[in-house]
Write a structure and sequence with these properties.
Strands 6, 7, 8, 9, 10 and 11 form a six-stranded antiparallel β-sheet that branches. The chain has a five-stranded mixed β-sheet with strand order 2-1-5-19-20, covered by helices on one side. Helix content is 34%, strand content 15%. Mean pLDDT is 87; it is low at 782-809. With 809 residues, the protein is of the alpha+beta class. α14 (476-485) packs across α16. A hairpin with a 4-residue loop joins β8 (366-371) and β9.
């Protein structure tokens, strides 16, 4: 008996030693694992990567940028119903356990035994706290070591943070499919709603996603998604979060995935991409894509929509004069799935207000169309008469007299709905030519609209900010401004007659020409600018010196390619549409220096202002109510780049371009406007830059690979119609305002042709702007020796070859 007790004692002692040894080894292993665990306390300072949102001037959304699509929402702003749904679905004992749920672990262990026997992948029994530990600090691998680390971290998290903080971390970090991290981003992605707008059924669906977002995708797997949602609703019922009536009503609700309303977004691809590029350059990739910034831009959505429409319509109108290049593709009209094929066809660019159509039948007088929405339409012969064929040499074929010579059944074509004619359409095609339109506030430099081409989807090259093209005669205002600064007046006379420039030994003589190859003889500066006379401009540049012209151009922000050669006076230098429009803005604002800008303000995720364009201190601006106090007065520290009086003289002369010069088509707008056409050699680049007193708009048109637009195409025929279309709609409802006259200007009645006092033979009398003491005193036609004397036939300037004769105007 004694031996038996001794044996039992030795056995118990051995087990005790082994137990103590095992405990020591376990504690040692936990200690070693704990050494490798990350610092969980840093979650107190955790700021998850969140989306940067770019807003238009009216607050509407332009775009969101993020590596992980997330909108961080503090726990107090997450509706209780959302919290309850996720707790019921993922961790029903969350509010009571200590980070680990023993009952949940036991249930998971039994379930995993069954899954292993059936050859299925085991599942975890993790609490929400454990999931937070895994999501923030660990990997997804299923190993004992990872589970131990997860448990240790969960215990530490529970000791460090409140339940509310842990749930906040979970609900903002969890991946829920559709590229969405966190419940707020998922609510927007699946339903286009904020959290407080979700129905009970929608809330339960979001809570169903953490287990397997792809498996419960409501579009790809609608039955699985609904079953999982109903499971979550049942769990909420069992836990007392909802009553039976709410449960039944939510189960009866279908899952309807809705994208965010289109009117929440402003379509402005070129503008938005330019903002993104500038901010990445300023803040870095991580600061922009993960910073959760709120960026307020300058864009006015109404003007942007007008700009896009005017540019697309203008480019298309020009392109139609060049003939028809054929259909986008062809489909078999007898195919049983014809409509589905039509709907799947991708033209490769934004259609805008155009539509994709299939030609079903063609007769002499027109065609019958099938549209992608299943409706049908008609196209008459008159609406495709422009579509003349193009031969191998690019020449237009004969006029279209039979629709069957243009279209055939099965053709895939672009059509535009006719206004006030439901069901009737006109034939269109994607133009090959490109262009840009930019509109800005001349007093601040705020870019109000920017369209950099026909299609942002097809080409992200922004012709408004990146295309450097010759300005042609759109540069001439700065030549004439330099002349005003040199002592000329709008009534000074310069000879408009042939001139030959000797370029130096071994180089050919340069013989510039006027666009129409005609000559006006002695002509005032005003008429020379209004009629865009090249020969006058060259003589003027030669008289005042190119150095003076270059100085003026640089003060107005035009710096690239300026050389001290006479060709620069005719716009041979390159400039972007935005830079040229900004230069014109400094004329209309009275010569004040401005810089164009797209970003008004940047705030971080906490609402702190990181950047504000106008950083001037203004304590009085903080008043929220008017109590009879005067408006705040702010100093304007911006320098002047030109005498306001000279700037006004230029504005007045540019008004004449529209009233009597190369842009008279704009006169029909019936309000004070000014501007200048521009056309380069061989009509490769055409421009119109013009303005009202408070809005500057520049338009450029040309091919990306420069080539002639056509021998008769000019800024007046191609760019000006786009400008007119924009200004007509943009200024609708805006009362006409005269240009502001600065102090020190004398307005004197003169003959519009001679620039002198009106006489009995004067046909057109205008008010001319003069500086005091420079007004004409008689009605005779002067021949001022300084500016009007004929030049020698051959004159020498520089050694660099200048361009040949051409249509710079």
């Amino acid at each position: 008996m004694f031996r038996l007790f001794a044996a039992l004692a030795r056995l118990l002692l051995g087990l005790l030693v082994l137990g103590l040894l095992g405990l020591a080894v376990g504690l040692w292993a936990l200690d070693r694992l704990a050494l490798d665990l990350p610092d969980h306390a840093r979650l107190a300072r955790y700021e998850p990567p969140t989306a940067t949102r770019i807003h238009a001037g009216d607050g509407r959304l332009l775009a969101e940028y993020a590596r992980e699509k997330r909108v961080f929402v503090p726990i107090e702003m997450i509706p209780p119903r959302v919290q309850q749904a996720f707790v019921a679905a993922e961790d029903q004992h969350f509010w009571w356990h200590f980070g680990l749920d023993p009952l949940g672990i036991l249930r998971a262990a039994l379930e995993n035994l069954r899954r292993i026997q059936e050859g299925e992948r085991p599942q975890g029994g993790s609490t929400i706290t454990q999931q937070v530990a895994k999501n923030f600090f660990l990997t997804n691998e299923i190993t004992l070591e990872r589970k131990i680390k997860e448990a240790v971290l969960a215990l530490r998290l529970e000791r460090t943070f409140s339940k509310e903080k842990i749930l906040e971390l979970y609900l903002n970090e969890i991946f829920l499919g559709a590229r969405s991290y966190g419940v707020a981003a998922a609510a927007l992605s699946y339903f286009g709603k904020s959290l407080d707008e979700l129905t009970l059924a929608e809330t339960a669906f979001l809570a169903a996603l953490p287990k397997a977002p792809a498996r419960y995708d409501p579009v790809k797997n609608p039955e699985s998604a609904r079953a999982r949602r109903d499971y979550v609703l049942k769990r909420m019922l069992e836990d007392g979060y909802i009553d039976p009536a709410e449960y039944e009503a939510a189960r009866a609700e279908p899952i309807r995935v809705r994208k965010r309303a289109e009117d929440e977004f402003v379509q402005a691809g070129f503008f938005t991409e330019e903002v993104r590029r500038q901010l990445v350059e300023r803040l870095g990739e991580a600061g922009f894509y993960e910073g959760g910034l709120s960026v307020r831009t300058t864009i006015e959505p109404r003007l942007q929509a007008i700009a896009d429409r005017a540019l697309r319509d203008g480019l298309s109108a020009y392109d139609r004069k060049q003939g028809y290049r054929g259909p986008l593709g062809r489909l078999d009209p007898a195919a049983p799935d014809l409509l589905a094929r039509l709907q799947r066809f991708d033209p490769g660019f934004e259609l805008g207000h155009w539509k994709l159509a299939l030609v079903r039948a063609v007769e002499r007088e027109g065609a019958r169309l099938l549209l992608a929405d299943g409706s049908e339409g008609q196209m008459s012969l008159a609406e495709l008469a422009w579509a003349r064929p193009i031969d191998a040499q690019g020449r237009l074929g004969p006029p279209v007299k039979d629709a069957r010579t243009v279209l055939a059944p099965g053709d895939l074509v672009l059509v535009e709905p006719l206004p006030r004619a439901p069901g009737r359409f006109a034939l269109r095609q994607r133009p090959e030519v490109e262009g840009a339109l930019v509109a800005l506030d001349p007093h601040t430099g705020r870019v109000l609209a920017l369209s950099g081409g026909f299609s942002f989807r097809e080409s992200q090259f922004n012709r408004a900010t990146q295309a450097r093209r010759q300005a042609g005669s759109a540069f001439k205002p700065f030549v004439y401004l330099a002349a005003l600064e040199a002592g000329y007046t709008p009534s000074s006379v310069v000879l408009d007659a042939p001139i030959v420039v000797d370029q130096g030994p071994g180089l050919p003589k340069w013989r510039p020409e006027n666009y129409g190859q005609d000559f006006l003889g002695p002509t005032t500066l005003r008429v020379g600018l209004e009629k865009s006379r090249n020969l006058m401009t060259v003589r003027l540049a030669q008289d005042i010196g190119m150095e003076r012209i270059i100085d003026v151009a640089r003060r107005f922000g035009i710096e690239r390619g300026l050389e001290p050669y006479l060709s620069s006076a005719l716009g041979a230098n390159e400039v972007t549409p935005l830079a040229l429009a900004t230069a014109y803005a400094m004329l209309v604002n009275g010569g004040r220096k401005i810089e164009p800008y797209l970003v008004e303000r940047i705030q971080d995720r906490h609402g702190r202002t990181l950047f504000r364009r106008d950083a001037r201190a203004c304590p009085d601006c903080r008043d929220v109510a008017w109590r009879g106090q005067p408006p705040p007065e702010l100093d304007d520290p911006r320098p002047f780049v030109a005498d306001p009086r000279h700037a006004f003289q230029m504005v007045s002369m540019l008004q004449g371009v529209i009233e009597r010069g190369t842009a008279t088509a704009a006169r029909g707008l019936g309000r004070p406007l000014a501007g200048k056409t521009g056309t380069t050699n061989d009509s490769k680049d055409v421009w119109f830059v013009g303005f009202s007193p408070d809005l500057v708009v520049g338009v450029f048109v040309g091919f990306d690979q420069p080539k002639s637009l056509g021998p008769r195409e000019t800024g007046a025929s191609v760019a000006l119609p786009i400008w007119i279309a924009f200004m007509r709609e943009a200024l609708e409802g805006v009362p006409p305002t005269p240009f502001r006259t600065p102090p020190g200007i004398h307005l004197v009645q003169v003959d519009a042709t001679t620039g002198q006092r009106p006489g009995p033979d004067s046909r057109v009398v205008i008010s001319e702007a003069f500086l005091p003491g420079t007004e004409p005193v008689s009605s005779r036609s002067p021949h001022d020796g300084a500016s009007g004397a004929p030049r020698p036939d051959v004159e020498s300037f520089g050694r660099t070859p200048l361009p040949g004769p051409g249509g710079l105007y």
